[in-house]
Design brief:
- This protein is about 40% helix and about 20% strand.
- With about 300 residues, the chain is α/β, with parallel strands linked by helices.
- Strands 1, 2, 3, 4, 5, 6, 7, 8 and 9 form a 9-stranded mixed β-sheet that branches.
- Helix 7 packs across helix 9 and helix 8 (about 250-275) packs antiparallel against helix 9 (about 280-305).
C-alpha cells in the first residue's frame, strides 16, 4: 500500500465531538495513515481551539477558499502521501478502512476509489427507505455491492491518487456545500469523477465495499424539511452537472431511478395496501416524494435559469 494522507474537512463547532471521534478512529487504523490533515472552512475560532483538542500529530490548516470543495483541495495541496483519502468529520472509520480503501490502487490504472458508508442513526430511521440513503450521505440500495468500476464515489468515503487529483484541478469549487446551508449544493464528487474518467478512462474509479465508515445521522436529518431541502439541492446540482458535462454524466442516475427507485416505490406501496403495512406505505410516500421533488428541481433549474445541456 502506498502512503495515504487523510483529509477531514470541518466548519462548525457543533460537530466538534464528532470530529474528535473521527480523528481518533483514523489514528487507530491498521495501518496508520501517513498523515491526518484537518482543514477548517471559514471558522478561525474553531481552528484556534483544535490544537488543544486533537492528537498532536494532526496537521491543521485553514481552507484557502470557501466551501467543502475548496477545503478538500486545500488538503490535497498540503498532502504528501501518494494517495489522498477523504472522510467526513461526522463519520468514524473502521479499523481496516485505510487498508481497504487503498486496495483498488494495486491496479496501476485505478486513480480513485469509493467505500461503503453505513448510517449511524441518532434517533433511528422512522421513514427513509434504503433507496434514499443518499439523502443522508450513505450507501443506498441500488449502489453496486461488489468490487467493480463505478461512475463516482461518495465523498464521505473515498480516495484518489494525489497526482490525478492535481491533474484535473481537484474538486470543482462551484459544486458542493458552501455557506450556512448544510446542503445548498452537492454532487462535487460526480463532477470530479467525470473529469477523472474522461482523463484516465471509464474503469479508473473502483468501488471497495470492505472500506467501511459509519456516518452519523442526526435526528434533524430524518425530518421532512431536511428531506425536501436535500432533494431540491440534489436536483439543482444534477442539472448543473448535466449542463457542464452532458447527458452521459447522468446515465447512472437515470438507471437508478428506472430500475431501483421506481420499482421500490411500487413494492412499498403494494406492501402498504395489501399487507396494511403502515411503515411500508410511509416509505412509498417518501420515495415518491423524493423522486418528484428531485426531478422537479432538476427540470426547474433548466427552466428558471435558461440553461442549455451540453451535447457531450
Amino acid at each position: 500500500m502506498g502512503s495515504v494522507s487523510v483529509v477531514v474537512c470541518t466548519h462548525t463547532d457543533r460537530r466538534l465531538g464528532l470530529l474528535r471521534e473521527c480523528v481518533d478512529s483514523l489514528f487507530a487504523a491498521e495501518p496508520a495513515p501517513h498523515e491526518v490533515i484537518v482543514v477548517v472552512d471559514d471558522n478561525p475560532g474553531l481552528l484556534a481551539r483544535l490544537p488543544a483538542l486533537l492528537p498532536a500529530d494532526t496537521k491543521l490548516l485553514a481552507s484557502t477558499g470557501k466551501g467543502v470543495s475548496a477545503a478538500r483541495n486545500t488538503g490535497v495541496e498540503h498532502a504528501s502521501g501518494e494517495l489522498v483519502a477523504f472522510i467526513d468529520d461526522d463519520a468514524v472509520a473502521d479499523p481496516k478502512w485505510l487498508a481497504e480503501i487503498a486496495r483498488p490502487f494495486e491496479k496501476p490504472d485505478t486513480v480513485a476509489a469509493g467505500g461503503r458508508i453505513v448510517p449511524r442513526w441518532e434517533a433511528g430511521n422512522p421513514r427513509l427507505p434504503d433507496e434514499l440513503f443518499w439523502v443522508v450521505g450513505c450507501t443506498y440500495a441500488g449502489h453496486p455491492t461488489t468490487p467493480q468500476p463505478v461512475t463516482r464515489p461518495i465523498a464521505c468515503n473515498m480516495a484518489a491518487r494525489r497526482d490525478a487529483l492535481r491533474a484535473v484541478g481537484g474538486f470543482p469549487h462551484d459544486f458542493g456545500p458552501s455557506g450556512p446551508s448544510a446542503k445548498n449544493h452537492s454532487n462535487e464528487e460526480i463532477a470530479l469523477a467525470v473529469a477523472l474518467r474522461r482523463r484516465f478512462g471509464p474503469e479508473s474509479i473502483w468501488y471497495a465495499p470492505d472500506a467501511l465508515v459509519h456516518h452519523f445521522v442526526p435526528a434533524s436529518r430524518v425530518g421532512w424539511r431536511y428531506l425536501w431541502t436535500r432533494c431540491v439541492a440534489e436536483g439543482i446540482s444534477k442539472a448543473d452537472v448535466h449542463v457542464r458535462y452532458g447527458p452521459a454524466a447522468m446515465g447512472f442516475d437515470q438507471s437508478y431511478a428506472r430500475h431501483t427507485l421506481i420499482p421500490a416505490i411500487v413494492r412499498y406501496a403494494r406492501q402498504g395496501v395489501v399487507k396494511r403495512d403502515r411503515a411500508a406505505g410511509v416509505r412509498a410516500l417518501v420515495g415518491a416524494g423524493g423522486l418528484l421533488v428531485t426531478a422537479g428541481a432538476y427540470g426547474g433549474r433548466f427552466v428558471a435559469s435558461g440553461l442549455r445541456p451540453a451535447s457531450t
